[in-house]
Specification:
Strand order of the largest sheet: 4-1-5
Distance between the termini: 55 Å
Strand content: under 5%
Structural class: mainly alpha
CATH architecture of the domain at 438-578: Alpha Horseshoe
Number of helices: 32
Largest sheet: 3 strands, mixed
Length: 679
């Protein structure tokens, strides 16, 4: 088997960071339970395994996970519940709250709206329940005191004896840090002066009050004590912890943005404009690097306010101070204008998609970059595609075909050993957890992620260098790694014009066929039969590596003037994903690409709108500028009035700049100059 296990990955990162089992599992599970997960003796609960990885400072989104239905349904229900709460949709939130309580094994008292505790309830699940209750109290019932109480309970469950301890005494996950930041936000909002003007001295006095969550009085002996700190001091410690501990760039960018946004409010309120500007700019740069939209707009708004304040200070400063201090040399007006363009473009594109211009600002706001598949869909589709009967599948695994039938209709899920045996039967090298390359080094996974970003941004020289680095660090005897490297080099050759399209097309079909069952109907030249494409050629949602090859096939067909066939490929692969029980938001890495390219091929306003709305709903913006440009061109083709398309082209320019797609930005600038004048 070519896959790695989650346990091996956790063990590798934990030992590399020299973190003990006791410290990593504190508040989550026993030392023995965590050891069993690392050894692969038990199948880890999805909620637990995510927090364990996050405690190691790593993102949980660098793997393709084949989940059982119950684990997937739990996560989807929780995510939808949080979303409806944040949008203050009480009716839908109520429905999902009931379902979430049922999944957690709870029965809620209608009067008290609190759960009846069940025996042997997991700490992680209980923590999530109190977190939900806190969100409900804050967003729907507007009861901050009750929200604070619930958040304190959530913190107590997974960070025991936290109050009065140094943050360094713990390893804290993204989810747990969000709980702490939500608690800090409540404290902050309760201290905001509501009446009249206040002197700076009085403001500082307010912020320097002891921070005492839930009025706890316990002080620790080690280091600084949380409860004896000021609220600004606590947030600064959180910021330092995030910089040091969250070594995964993606994970750090998301949580750093939330903490910086909170702390910047205090710094700005105290007159520390440069400090507020600096941390917000750092947060924005982190999100830009990762192509993340989530929490971008609140930070941009804060930066614009900082620029306005800085401009005022500059105007009041004496000439000597302006000359001696570097800060006064900044062109604050120009900076504010640039960030204003970014913010305005984001607001306008949201409105065009039928969304409110401003999303709700919650520290629990998500960025969906996960890649999920369902075990019963994968097993059933592969079995049928390869012409195997249930009788053939269960031989040597189960005594009865009924067991497999129950799995395929999601009434049951195979245990880890039987899951592996079933995957062997269908000749699949996939496990429950599949990295985008086969490696037990998280640094290698991050390297593959960087290659993908370079490809999206057309940074081909850097991409070529990173591919060489990746190849040196991979086991190239592994078939999956061979396919990944070969596909990456094919893309480079294609972009550099060093290949015959016909030859590459044939190679791509052969490469795809190594992991994805390809039915007959593919001609020798590699041009597929349209009837076959519009049938069931793509019988299941592809894995990420497979989607990359499928997209390359469609691009090559376009270059060979087979536009109709390319469109059919995109339509067919989207259809295969839409038929799945997995919501599109959990397939961002494979769903956004065909949707965006199909919109371009068909010059479709509706598909462009759908693609942008999808991007925003996932909390991503890597392709936002490109997608908006496609929309603008479609509008220009349909209408003689170019005023709307002109504005959209300009917005796409700024959105490409915001997401650091500089090659696309220059292409858009050239387009704008040719049609509308100098940009």
């Amino acid at each position: 088997m070519s896959y790695i296990t989650l346990g091996k990955l956790i063990y590798q990162i934990r030992t590399e960071q020299k973190i003990s089992l006791e410290k990593l599992g504190r508040g989550l599970c026993s030392k023995q339970a965590l050891s069993d997960i690392e050894r692969g003796n038990v199948q880890a609960d999805k909620l637990l395994s995510d927090i364990v990885l996050q405690r190691l400072g790593k993102s949980t989104d660098k793997q393709e996970v084949i989940l059982p239905w119950d684990a997937y349904h739990m996560e989807e229900t929780r995510d939808r519940l949080e979303q409806f709460i944040q949008w203050r949709d009480r009716e839908n939130a109520g429905k999902y709250r009931q379902e979430f309580a049922r999944l957690l094994g709870k029965e809620e008292s209608v009067e008290a709206r609190r759960p009846v505790k069940q025996e042997k309830e997991g700490r992680v699940r209980e923590m999530y329940w109190h977190r939900i209750l806190a969100e409900w109290a804050y967003w729907l019932d507007m009861e901050p005191d009750r929200a604070r109480e619930e958040l304190c309970m959530a913190v107590d469950l997974t960070l025991p004896d936290f109050w009065g301890q140094d943050l360094a005494c713990y390893v804290i996950s993204t989810v747990e840090m969000e709980n702490l930041l939500a608690l800090a936000r409540l404290e902050l909002e309760m201290r905001i002066p509501k009446y009249g003007k206040m002197t700076m001295a009085l403001r500082r006095e307010i912020w320097n009050e002891r921070w005492q969550p839930a009025d706890r009085k316990v002080l620790g002996d080690a280091g600084w004590a949380v409860e004896s700190m000021t609220l600004p001091g606590f947030l600064r410690e959180c910021l330092r912890y995030i910089r040091k501990h969250f070594t995964d760039a993606q994970e750090q960018a998301i949580i750093f943005a939330k903490c910086a946004w909170l702390l910047s409010y205090i710094e700005l309120d105290q007159g520390n404009v440069l400090e507020a500007y600096g941390m917000c700019e750092e947060a924005v740069e982190g999100l830009r690097d990762q192509g993340i939209f989530s929490f971008m707009m609140p930070l941009l708004e804060r930066i614009i306010v900082c620029c306005e304040r800085a401009e005022e200070i500059c105007a009041q400063a004496d000439l000597e101070k302006r000359m001696l201090t570097y800060a006064w040399q900044r062109d604050w007006n120009a900076r504010g204008e640039r960030y204003g363009h970014y913010l305005g473009a984001l607001k306008r594109v949201r409105v065009k998609c039928g969304l409110p211009p401003d999303p709700p600002v919650s520290v629990f706001m998500k960025c969906y970059q996960k890649s999920y598949h369902l075990d019963y869909e994968f097993i059933r589709s592969e079995r049928i595609a390869k012409g195997m009967t249930r009788e053939e599948m269960v031989e040597g695994i189960y005594q009865s075909q009924k067991t497999l039938w129950q799995i395929e209709v999601k009434r049951n899920s195979p245990h880890e050993r039987n899951f592996r045996l079933l995957m062997d039967k269908i000749a699949s090298d996939k496990g429950r957890y599949n990295a985008f390359v086969v490696s037990d080094s998280f640094e290698v996974l991050e390297l593959k992620d960087e290659i993908d970003r370079c490809m999206n941004r057309k940074e081909y020289e850097r991409m070529e260098e990173l591919i060489r680095q990746l190849e040196k660090r991979l086991d190239m005897e592994n078939a999956e790694n061979q396919r990944i490297i070969l596909h990456a080099r094919n893309i480079l050759e294609f972009r550099q014009g060093n290949v015959l399209y016909q030859d590459m097309l044939k190679k791509c079909w052969e490469l795809l066929g190594e992991s994805y069952h390809i039915a007959g109907g593919i001609e020798r030249a590699g041009v597929p039969d349209l009837g076959k494409l519009r049938g069931e050629l793509f019988y299941r949602a592809p894995m990420k590596a497979e989607m990359g090859i499928i997209n390359q096939i469609a691009v090559l067909l376009c270059r060979l003037k087979y536009k109709e066939e390319a469109e059919a490929i995109y339509e067919a692969v989207l259809k295969s994903m839409d038929k799945s029980d997995v919501a599109p938001c959990y397939r961002y890495r494979i769903y956004a690409l065909p949707l965006g390219n199909l919109a371009k091929l068909q010059s479709s306003v509706e598909l462009s709108r759908r693609g942008i709305a999808y991007e925003l709903s996932c909390g991503k913006m890597g392709s936002l500028g490109y997608a908006l440009m496609v929309w603008a061109c479609a509008i220009e083709d349909d209408s003689p009035d170019r005023a709307e398309s002109r504005e959209m082209v300009l917005d796409s320019y700024y959105l490409c700049e915001l997401s650091k797609n500089y090659k696309y930005r220059e292409d858009i600038k050239k387009y704008y100059n040719e049609r509308y004048g100098s940009l």
